Amino acid sequence: NVDLAYHWEWFDREIFLVLWIVIFAMLGFYLLGKIQFAHDSPLPTVSVPRLFLAIAVLAFTTYLVPGLWGAPLNAVSAFLPPQYTQDFDLYTPLLAGGGQVAGPPPAHTQHKYGNLFHAPLGLDAYFDYDEARAAALAAGKPLMIDFTGHACVNCRKMEASVWPNPTVLPLLRDKYVLVQLYVDDKTELPEAEQTVSKFSGRNLRTLANKWSDLQASRYNASSQPFYVLLDPKTLPGSSAQQPRNFLTCLVLKKRYKKAFVLTWACLAAP
After folding, report:
1. What are the counts of helices (DSSP H) followed by strands (DSSP E) for the chain?
2. Domain interval for residue 152
3. Which H or E run includes 30?
4. Residues 6 or more apart from 143 whose CB is under 8 A from it?
5. Residue 253, pLDDT score
6. What pLDDT digit, counting tens, does each position of 21-66 carry?
7. What's the CA gap between 256 and 22, in Å, rounded?
8. Do 123 and 255 fall within a single domain?
9. Following CA atoms 204, 210, 216, 217 in sequence, which dihedral angle do they give, to the nearest 10 degrees?
10. For residue range 71-119, what is the model confidence (pLDDT) as tens digits?
11. Phi, psi dihedral angles at 71 (to 5 degrees)
12. Residue 207: pLDDT over 50
């Protein structure tokens, strides 16, 4: 997470997976007595509990292997670096091609901070609120604000398990202008954009300061992921913000406890 927040780019998804595969494989063989250390007692036989534990560990190791080719690995996706950090990815092109390899992803216009951030699933996302709102006005589309973070485990889970859904992904790609605002990014703002928050009185010197202050001051929230569906013609926080979407979400929130169900419903609402 620190690597992502400071954009060092030392550890990508493949490195994490290779380390996990090697460590868990060695653990499985150790449980079977195939690997022993100097202080270990002789292991003439393997007990039944130890055997089942070794089977579970080696099964998990086998589950991780397809991830080296880009498999989403939904069970552990929240703990892995984002999919876009993987160099060899056969999964994302399949999403764009509806089950068929779609070739190279379409080239998107370079957006502000586009050299620092990458949207998941090949989406054409913005990373600056003002730029995204202007684009939404020009396109006549609603704006979806995604308050996210490099260290947000639930954000990665949503992006890996919910966003690729065949119902959700076309909406994100075609019906909304998506902006992702990272509330924990350490990139310093240009001096001309550094200011003092009217909400908290803090100095806003980094992107993390700016976007976390926006979320707290306008939406009275500080957790991530936090999604806002916004009519770009209205100011954030005004009473004109898509009331049908808001009411739909409120009704469904009483019925469903899981965040992904609520998110699907909000996106699908008219």
Report:
1. 10, 5
2. 116-268
3. helix 13-31
4. 132, 133, 136, 176, 177, 179, 228, 229, 230, 231, 232
5. 41
6. 999 999 999 999 898 888 888 888 899 999 999 999 999 999 999 9
7. 39
8. yes
9. 70
10. 888 888 878 887 777 877 777 776 655 444 444 445 566 788 888 888 8
11. -55, 140
12. yes
| Domain termination residue (choose one: 85, 106, 127) | 85
CATH number at residue 131: 3.40.30.10
Whether 73 and 124 share a structural domain: no
Do residues 29 and 22 make contact, with C-beta atoms less than 8 angstroms apart? no
- The answer to whether residue 106 is domain-embedded is no
- Residue 73 CA: distances (Å) to CA of 27, 60, 61, 81, 207: 20, 11, 12, 12, 30
Asked whether residue 15 falls in the same domain as residue 120, the answer is: no
Token digits of residue 267: 């996106």
Strand partners, 180: 146
- Count CB atoms within 10 A of the CB of residue 122: 21
Q: How far is CA 96 from the centre of its chain?
A: 18
- Is 57 among the domain residues? yes
48 and 131, same domain (yes or no):
no
Cα 195 to Cα 51: distance, rounded to the nearest angstrom: 61
Are 149 and 197 in the same domain?
yes
Q: Which amino acid is at 195?
A: T
The amino acid at 120: P
On whether both 125 and 256 belong to a single domain, the answer is: yes
